[in-house]
Each structure stands twice: as C-alpha cells, then as structure tokens.
Design goal:
The structure is a single chain. The protein is an alpha+beta fold. The protein has 2 domains: 255 residues, Alpha-Beta Complex (Naphthalene 1,2-dioxygenase Alpha Subunit, Chain A, domain 1); 118 residues, Rieske Iron-sulfur Protein (3-layer Sandwich). Helix content is 29%, strand content 28%. It is built from 11 helices and 19 strands. The strands form 5 sheets. A 7-stranded antiparallel beta sheet has the order 12-18-17-16-15-14-13, sandwiched between helices. Strands 5-4-3-6 form a 4-stranded antiparallel beta sheet, with no helix packed on it. Helix 3 crosses helix 11. The structure holds FE2/S2 (inorganic) cluster (FES) and fe (ii) ion (FE2).
Length: 382
C-alpha cells in the first residue's frame, strides 16, 4: 500500500466515523440460498473457479531450502510441491505414473529423488522418471519422457505458492496481473519475509462463502463478538475496495477515529485498523499490527469447508520461547473469535434445510458480501 492510499483510507474512516456510518452501497441485495446449498452449483464453482483460477497452495516458507518438498491435498488433488536445485518451485500430482500409488507419504522433508513405495519407480524432483526396476523385461518399449510426474502450473509470488489445481491446464497467469492492482498492498505486507509461527486445521460444516462473508462486515462485531474482540472495534464501521475479483476491507479499531488529533505524518494504518484481504477464491489475510493471519479455505462440498488458520510473522522476529508464547497467544485469541463466526456459519448452514429463507439479505453496509457473490456468479458463468 502506498502512503497516499494509507492516508486516504484513514481519512475515509475518520469521515465515516463522524457520520456514524459504514461505507454504504446504493441498495440492499438478495442472495439466494441455492448459492450455498446446491451440489450442482458447488460442482460448477469447483470446475470454474477452484480448478481453473490461481489458488494458493502453500506459503513460501513451508518450502525452504534446496530439495525441500511438501505434500498436501487440495480439494481432492494430492499435491507434491518441491524446491528444485535452481530455487524454482515445482508442483506435481503426488501420484506414481506406474499404477497410481501415492508417491511420497511424508508431509515434508528434503529429497532429490522420490521412490514409489509400491514397486520403486523413482522420479527426480524435476518430475522426470528416473528408475524402473526390471524395466528391460517388464516394460521393453517404455517411453520414459511420457511417464514423468503430472505437472501443475505453478508460480511463486508475494510469499505464496500459487497453482492451477488442474494437470490439464496449460499455464498460470502472471500473478501480478491476476491480483488486478492489489500487488502493491501485498508487497507492502511483505509475506515473502514471513514464516508460520502457529497453525491449525479445522473442518467447518458450512459453505465456504458463508465463512468468507463473515470476514467482510463489521455489523456483527459488537453482537457476535461482544465477549471477545467486539469491544475493540467501533460499531459497524468498515470500508472496502475491490481489485478485480479480490477485495480489501478496512476494519478500524476504536482508536482510529481519534487519529485526527495527531499529525498526519504519524498515521499508520496497521496500528489502528485490521485489514482483511480476500484473494479469490481460497484465501483471506487478516493483517494486524505485528503479524498476519492467513486463512486458507478448501471447500470439500457445498456444506463442508476445510480451513487452515496460520499466524504469519516476520522472519526478523526473534525465535525465542517468549516470542513463541506471544504468537501462540495471538493465534488463540484470533481462533477463539473466529470460532464464534464458525459456530454461526454452521448454524446458518443447518438452517438452510428449513427453507426458512429463500434468500439472504445484504444491507447497504454489507456490500462486500454482495460483491463476493457477484464475482463468483461471473466466474462460474465463464
Ligand atoms: S505404483 Fe508406483 S511403482 Fe508401481
Ligand atoms: Fe466475526
């Protein structure tokens, strides 16, 4: 974020606080519940968004050092991510090209050669098939070049490893272009210089959009989070901007409206506001004063979402027990508040079955939620 944007956003919040109003869209919007309940709709989202657009598979620090590797599952795809000797990242399906065994079983490690646990075919970390036991007898005409690991388009940028989760995809777009103007903000956050200090995973019985929507309005803060984070935020005060399919929401702390009392050159948005960056379609970043929370969404079905929640901290922060305690405490505070949202999300999802509402209502200060859904509609329409 450049200085001009930072000051402009703070001025906007001070102005909104004076008017006692969040940023308002022109009108309310309706969101049909089939968006959150239909299995056919979910399959379209999977095919048109999660298998077609760049998604974040990992944070760069998870794959540090020559020949490091990482295995993960992303929406049913077993992934093998590697750091090749030239420093570039490779992404493959973690599936042996003989008869399909899971090639690498460990979650992380360091290897140049991967040997299948079934019949010991081996593959180098550039994906090439290297060894086939009894090849002359068993596979006399084997075209090794055609039996390398299936590659996924991959790119490393802004501290993350991005993939197209589809081995049939030809290429991945330039991530700076994909970010549609949000790149300067990500540069400013500087996640390439961050590491994971704490992480946990959880399955939530709710549609992924219900969960994302929860991070895009401040209307619920004083109510749903009254016993946790609510008192630290003004009631229902937020502004948001879109960057192509992505979004930045600014959630001021109670101190921000008072910034007009100090000289503008001392204003720092991270000191007095949280920012939520929604990177379509599987990432939200909650930027706080000295760390960033990374929320990784993996929709499993229309009614189930696997989430990873991680505290990303600057690599320059000391690796002491004291600091680790600090980060663990931070993670706990955030996850406790988030679980309040997730419980609501599960209740909302369960309520869909009652058909009590044919649609949800987004108020004028919930415009970001409407934008998210419009973006999804556009993407699944092709
Ligand atoms: S399935 Fe991997 S070597 Fe046979
Ligand atoms: Fe919340």
């Amino acid at each position: 974020m450049d200085r001009e944007t930072e000051v402009r956003l703070i001025r906007e919040i001070i102005g909104l606080a004076e008017q006692k109003s969040a940023f308002l869209d022109d009108s309310i919007a309706h969101s049909p519940i089939s968006r959150y309940t239909s299995p056919e709709r979910f399959e379209r989202e999977r095919a048109m968004i999660f298998r077609r657009k760049p998604v974040i598979a990992a944070q760069s620090s998870e794959l540090e050092g020559e020949n490091a590797f990482l295995t993960k599952d992303f929406m049913g795809l077993p992934l093998l991510l590697v750091r090749k000797s030239d420093g570039e990242v490779g992404a493959y399906l973690n599936v042996c090209r003989h008869r399909g065994a899971r090639l690498e079983r460990e979650a992380t490690g360091c290897k140049r050669l991967f040997t299948c646990p079934y019949h010991a075919w081996s593959f180098s970390n550039d994906g090439a098939l290297r060894g086939v036991p009894h090849e002359d007898q068993g596979f006399p005409d084997l075209q090794r070049a055609e039996r390398g690991l299936r590659k996924l388009p991959v790119s490393e940028a802004y501290g993350f490893i991005w993939i197209i989760a589809n081995p049939d995809a030809a290429d991945i777009p330039d991530i700076e272009v994909w970010l549609s103007g949000m790149a300067p903000d990500l540069d400013w956050i500087g996640l390439a210089d961050h590491r994971i200090a704490a992480i946990e995973e959880v399955d939530i019985k709710a549609n992924w959009k219900v969960l994302m929507e929860g991070g895009m309005e401040a209307y619920h803060f004083r109510v749903a989070h009254k016993n946790t984070i609510g008192p630290y935020f003004p009631d229902n005060l937020l502004t948001y901007s879109t960057f192509g399919p992505h979004m930045r929401a600014v959630l001021p702390r109670i101190s921000m409206p008072d910034l007009h009392q100090i000289p503008e050159e001392n204003w720092q948005i991270r000191q007095d506001a949280n920012m939520v960056y929604t990177l379509m379609a599987n990432t939200q970043l909650l930027v706080q004063q000295d760390h960033v929370m990374w929320f990784h969404f993996e929709p499993v079905s229309e009614a189930l979402t696997h989430m990873r929640m991680a505290t990303l901290v600057p690599k320059s922060s000391p690796l002491t027990d004291e600091m680790q305690e600090h980060w663990d405490k931070n993670q706990k505070i955030t996850v406790t508040a988030l679980m309040e949202d997730f419980v609501l999300g599960e209740e909302i999802q369960a309520g869909f079955a009652s058909r009590g509402n044919p649609s949800h209502l987004f108020g004028r200060f919930e415009g970001a939620l409407h934008r998210l859904n419009v973006t999804v509609e556009e993407m699944i329409a092709g």
